[in-house]
Design goal:
Helix content: 10-25%
Order of helices and strands: EEHE
Number of strands: 3
Oligomer: single chain
Structural class: alpha+beta
Radius of gyration: 14 Å
Shape: elongated
Strand order of the largest sheet: 2-1-3
Number of helices: 1
Number of domains: 1
């Protein structure tokens, strides 16, 4: 999951995206103080063998 956090004077908004491509396209178009983050859940089944 990808998240854009947008900060303004009185508000903080967060936008979630399923793919990096979607997030980066939106990130280019958003004005203001913003942060793009990738969220990784380690309880996801794709990481099960890596955590053993």
């Amino acid at each position: 999951m990808w998240v854009i956090t947008l900060y303004s004077n009185k508000n903080t908004s967060m936008f979630e995206f399923d793919t990096e491509k979607e997030a980066r396209e939106a990130f280019k178009n958003i004005k203001g103080c913003k942060i793009l983050s990738e969220i990784i859940y380690f309880n996801d089944h794709c990481f099960a063998s890596a955590t053993v």
